[in-house]
Amino acid sequence: MIRLTQAVVVEGKYDQIKLASLIDGLIIPTNGFGIFRDKDRLALLRRLAESRGLVIMTDSDAAGFMIRNRLKAAIPKGRLYHAYIPDRPGKEKRKTTPSAEGKLGVEGMDAATLLQALADAGVTAQTGQAPRPPVTKADLYAWGLTGTPNAARRRAALQKALDLPARMNTNTLAQVLGRLYEREQIERMLADLP
Predict the structure, then answer these.
(1) pLDDT mean values, one per 10 residues, the chain (194 residues)
(2) Which domains does the chain have, with CATH numbers?
(3) pTM of this prediction?
(4) FRET pair for 144, CA 20 to 30 Å: which of 21, 61, 62, 120?
């Protein structure tokens, strides 16, 4: 498993799951064409690109390239890395039929191909730095962001204060918090919430 400096953007949750088995890094799904309407998620991706760089890894079909081109137009040059997967015919194991173009997507690629695509894109692995402990769902619970009567309100207030997308699920919120902030920063921000 490699630990990436840059954040990675993929099309969907199954792509995110596949990459999470190979890399230790922040992986954000676009929810397919949802990125065309989700201004908050796009703002988050811009912020990640500015602070650490952003790798785009989409499928090699027409839809993947439409999403890639949308992000390419929205993210400043020099902060964007393009990881391309090869055109390979087939279908993902979880699907009953192949995609419209009959190509494997990110989730269907083997590990070596995905790691090579990242290497070819010029991503950098973090070295010499102790990994930051992850923020877990248990942490979110302890901070009153899940499982309590005011959790939704507190989560919404924190996401607004941090300029994060309102529709972010708790798993993604934990991952983003863990990658962008130290625990002490998070706890200070939570103390300032109403």
Answers:
(1) 89 94 92 90 90 92 92 88 88 82 90 90 68 83 92 90 78 82 87 82
(2) 2-121 (3.40.1360.10), 137-191 (no CATH)
(3) 0.73
(4) 21
